[in-house]
Every structure is written in structure tokens, then in C-alpha cells.
Amino acid sequence: MRLEVAVERWPIAGRFTISRGSRTEAVVVVATIRAGEHVGRGECVPYARYGETVEGVEAVIEAQWQLVEHGLDRVALQREMPAGAARNALDCALWDLEAKRSGRRAWELAGTRAPGAVTTAYTLSLGTPEEMRVAAEAARARPLLKVKLGGAGDAARIRAVREGAPDASLIVDANESWRAETLGENLAACEAARVALIEQPLPAGDDAALDHVRTSIPICADESFHDRRSFDEIAQRYQAINIKLDKTGGLTEALQVARMARARGLQVMVGCMLGTSLAMAPAMLLATDSEFVDLDGPLLLAKDREPGLQFAGSLVSPPEAALWG
Q1: Between 20 and 30 A from 317 (CA), which of 32, 276, 297, 304?
Q2: What is the C-alpha separation between 16 and 127, in angstroms, rounded?
Q3: For residue 169, how many other CB atoms are within 10 A of its CB?
């Protein structure tokens, strides 16, 4: 087997803004593993919030070339590398390669049921309340909207989005921007707006205030949750987890995490970083059985790779073998 690594830049349609800043392009790292006529690919998105850089992730993947040439498999990969974006790219490439070599689909190899079309959330970037009301109005036909928040003024943003999209289900994502003293006001705004899920309201490590929260809205751990090692503390404070392959270090760990979450009675949201259809495709194996799906990365790009996932509005279909798996 032979390993190739490439950095790719994909322009965003406009600007993508969350509480930590804005971007105009998605920078991804693609691992390609070749074995004779068969090719497996995996895409990851290095994330500075977790101490990752594009150059660093690229170098970590490239450093595995000898292991790959000596027949690295997914089991050995879990031992050799920690969870994170680099392992995700390699893990997904190995899944894809195994599917191509065996002539079977990845979900058959995983022992899961075949994925079907699912409704993904569509993300509204952080802005002023009026900007977000206008954005919500433009997306009001989409059944599920994910609302990026930023701290001060979020109650007004939540009200504005609900005004712009009165019938859509809403996920609000604070990206760690709330504080214990603002929880009450923001939770009240969420309840008034009939929000379906609140994602990562408090900074990771500072979420003890959730021990005293009383709300009917499930609260979902994102930055606070990475892989199975996070479960014990998370299950005491959250009612849902956001499983992202770039956090779990690939599909192999993500499948285990999803099983553990269901066993513990936690709801599952399958999420993504901002990447192309190649990054979303493996996560489709989790989507059919997840309560919330947020795989809208390609919808936020000015263009996607071809072939890509097929979207009909917010309905996304499973990947063709030519894309992945």
C-alpha cells in the first residue's frame, strides 16, 4: 500500500462566522491510500480549537507512510495514533479502501443497516439579530436550522431567527460563548422560541453550572466531548453528544461511541467540520440512527467535489461508491 497526502482549499459561499471568528474558505487534508488498482480516500479538517494546524496534521499523516506500506489496518491505527483529524483521514481512507477491494459497501463491512436519505440541519452564521432574521427568512423552507450564537445579545438573535423562520426546528450552537450568569436569560429565550436542542452553551471544562440547570430542552456536548474517554463526566451533565469524526479520530471510534451513547440513554447528533462531501460521506453511516444530523458542509461551499453527496433541499442521500465507501 502507498500513502499520499494533499492539502486542498475550498471557497465558502460568502463568509462563515461563529463565536471564535470568520472564514472564507475550508482548508482540508486528504489522505489517499493506493493498493494496486484500488484507491481509498479520507478527508479531515484540522481545527485550531483542538490545537491542530493544517501543516501539523499533514505532517502527522505523512509520518505514517512506513506503517501504511507495511499493511496498516484500522485496528492497528487505533493503537498507533490518538484521536483527532489526522487519524480520521487515515481511518476513513482505510474504510474506503477495504470497501473498494472487497466490492462491498462500507456499511456492510461495519455491520450497520444501509443508510437512507436524512434531513440535515442548515447552518446560519453568527451576525446581528437583523442579519440573522434575514438569513432565517431566506432559509425558512428548510425544516431544520442550526443557529450560531456568540454570547452577548444571543437572546435577541434567537428571537430574530424564530421570527424569520416561524416553522423550522431550531438547534442553537453557542460554541462555548455563554457564561453561567447568562444561562437563565438565554435558556428562557430558547424555551420561548421552541428550540429543539442547545449545543455546547458553556466553555469545555467550565460546564459544572449545567448541574443546576432545569430545562426541557436537551443540551448537547460538542467541544466537551471527543471520544469514549469523555463519557463518564459528560453523561452526568448532558442529554446528547455531537459525534464528529474529526474529534473521534475516524469512523471506527465513532461507531463505538454511538453504540455507547445509546446504551447510556444519550441522544446522538452526528456533526461535521466545514468540509466537502468526502468528509461527510463516512458520517452518513451514523446519520440514519441519529436524532439530529448536521452534515451541511457542502451546502455552505461555493462548490463541492465531484461526485459529491446528493442534496435535495436539506435531504441528503447516502454516498455513491465513487465518492466513498
Answers
A1: 32
A2: 10
A3: 17
8 Å CB contact between 36 and 69: no
Cα distances (angstroms) measured from residue 11 to each of 24, 26, 124: 6, 6, 17
- Which range scores top for mean pLDDT: 91-105, 199-213, 230-244? 91-105
* 298, 308 Cβ separation under 8 angstroms: yes
pLDDT at 165 over 90: yes
pLDDT at 231 over 80: yes
Q: Name the fold adopted by 2-103.
A: Enolase-like; domain 1 (3.30.390)
CATH superfamily to which 118-316 belongs: Enolase-like C-terminal domain (3.20.20.120)
Q: What is the DSSP letter of 209?
A: G
Active-site annotation, residues = 148, 244
Q: Which residues fall within 8 angstroms of residue 154, CB to CB, at 6 or more apart?
A: 172, 174, 177, 178, 182, 186, 189
Cα gap 219→202, rounded to integer Å: 11
Would the pLDDT of 19 be above 80?
Answer: no
Q: Is 66 helix (H, G, I), strand (E, B) or coil?
A: helix
| Dist. CA 283–CA 254, nearest whole Å | 9
Residue percentage of the chain with pLDDT more than 90: 91
